[in-house]
Write a structure and sequence with these properties.
Length: about 100
């Protein structure tokens, strides 16, 4: 219990920033009209490219004998790629709805 208290006192600024980010995120997302939810979600999916880069970095820095890290990194790269591609597919479909038909 003493270690937990020391962690919170040493990192209280970081904890306050995370709590503030949560409240700001809820307020920003709550004010988005329903029409913009699809492009907002597709953009959020595209941001998962960071997951791909992070997984590749973890795999590069892991030991060759550490099969767990390599397997989890491979799964993260695969799922992150699916999410990025899915975000762009959703965005493309949404933009097709706004094109004028001949």
């Amino acid at each position: 219990m003493n270690e937990l208290i020391q962690f919170f006192t040493a990192n209280k600024e970081m904890i306050f920033i995370v709590i503030l980010m949560i409240f700001v995120g809820v307020e920003v997302i709550g004010k988005v009209p329903a029409v913009l939810h699809t492009p907002l979600m597709s953009g959020a999916n595209a941001i998962h490219g960071v997951v791909i880069v992070g997984a590749i970095l973890v795999m590069l820095n892991s030991e060759p004998e550490n099969y767990l890290a390599l397997a989890l990194g491979t799964i993260a790269v695969f799922l992150g790629t699916l999410n990025v591609v899915g975000g762009f597919v959703v965005t493309d479909r949404m933009l097709e709805m706004f094109k004028k038909k001949k």
